[in-house]
């Protein structure tokens, strides 16, 4: 999953859309950490759960 936002399109997003894009980017980073063995599955799951709770994102 590649999340790529150009500055011009970012300016046109609503607050909720920006939050969703930030969530996806952070989720992608967590997945990369897991794939590379930088974090355990338990750490990934906890971090993802916390991210969902803090950002109040529906997945």
Classify the helix fraction into a percent range: 55-70%
Beta strand count? 0
The total count of helices amounts to 3
Low-confidence stretches: none
Major sheet: size, sense and barrel closure?
none
What's the order of the H and E elements?
Answer: HHH
The computed structural class is: mainly alpha
| Structural Rg | 13 Å
Mean pLDDT: 87
What would you call the shape? Answer: elongated
Features:
mainly alpha; 69% helix; 59 residues; single chain
Would you kindly provide a written description of the structure presented here, covering whatever features stand out?
By secondary structure, the chain is mostly helical. Helices cover 69% and strands 0% of the residues. Helix 2 runs antiparallel to helix 3. The mean pLDDT is 87.
């Amino acid at each position: 999953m590649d999340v790529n936002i150009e500055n011009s399109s970012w300016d046109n997003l609503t607050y909720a859309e920006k939050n969703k894009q930030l969530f996806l980017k952070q989720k992608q980073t967590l997945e990369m950490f897991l794939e590379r063995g930088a974090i355990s599955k338990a750490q990934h799951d906890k971090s993802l759960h916390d991210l969902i709770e803090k950002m109040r994102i529906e997945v």
